[in-house]
Write a structure and sequence with these properties.
It comes from Ureibacillus acetophenoni. It contains 13 helices and 14 strands. It is of the alpha/beta class. The structure holds 4'-deoxy-4'-aminopyridoxal-5'-phosphate (PMP).
Length: 394
Amino acid sequence: MLYSDKILRTPSSFIRNILKVASAEDVISFAGGLPNPISFPIDGLQKAINEAIEVHGPKLFQYSTTEGYLPLRQYIADKYNTNFGLAIEPEDILITTGSQQALELISQVLVNKGEGIIVEEPGYLGALQAFSLTEPTFYPVQLTEEGLNVEQLAQTLYENPCIKFIYTVPNFHNPTGITYTRENREAIYEVVKKFDVVLIEDDPYGDLRWNGEKLPYIGAGRLENSVILGSFSKIVTPGFRIGYMITKNKELLNHVNTAKQATDLHTNIFSQIVIHDYLVKNDLTTHITKITDLYQQQARSMIQAMEKYFPPTITYTKPDGGMFIWVTLEEGVSALELFNKAMEAKVAFVPGDPFYTNKSNVNTLRLNYTNSSPEVIEEGIKRLGKILYEIPSK
Ligand code: PMP
């Protein structure tokens, strides 16, 4: 056998295959997960690039440190301390090649083959892929409208001492769009503090809130093994690949630093310096408001269209931010079958299947609204609604 077991067991991106079919010009696609290009502050970045070259010269083009550009780590620490009353220092931060890299590195550092990872059900496909490389055992814990099913979380932890970490996306979750409630966060904290496990709060969408109040992290500032992952992908640019990991656990951060060194030495320093220069010279809050105003309008259009065109038996989440809506069809209806019919009608979405570690032919699906105008959203949902009315209920 030529290839390793671990690569053969890692799911290849189902979404990528879907996107291939969905990207035909005449297809209305709710399948992707791309930020709207309005979120790229191209003029500001262009200025920052020119100035950075003038100011920093060769430093921009040289090798750099694994932990990342200190002023950028300071900026990130200040942002979290101001917004969440935390006491993060630059030493608690590692800049990563997108937060995606942090997912991969953390699992490399913590998990031996066969050991356990708690994931949300459904969960972020990219994390499931990244974790698969360490050949873990997945323990899915059900996600409800309020957040994680806390009883199931507690039972899973009690019964499986091999569990190394818990992976959560508490704000505007991918794929469901839900946000863990304050009560749910508190209840998770009460459970997790009793166990020697790492709690990851992956938060690339947290800034994209247009409704309701910002909620505190579950573990940051009070759980020893708390990790926050953040990213500039959804608020500045994903192309620069700038993400970060924050933890007060020095030992964990050191090990992840070593793993990163082995993987890519350091994150692209050109991107780090340019993004930092952009951040200090521009008003990020105003920029983010521009993004959330658009996403709110798009989400509202999608929800209004679903109210109008979908059979009343179909339920869906109503996000307060982020990029996704999660639809639950009638019991027994396959989202994959619906996908095939929808493609005939030239409208695409992602069937729920790849977001589960142990389920197939599910009756759930993900819709993304960030790249279509309200008119196109209405037309796409109308087409889906027509198909949904034609599917015989079981
Ligand atoms: N976590 C979640 C929940 C995501 O949705 C994404 C992007 N799709 C990532 C992490 C990775 O983001 P990046 O590597 O661009 O920071």
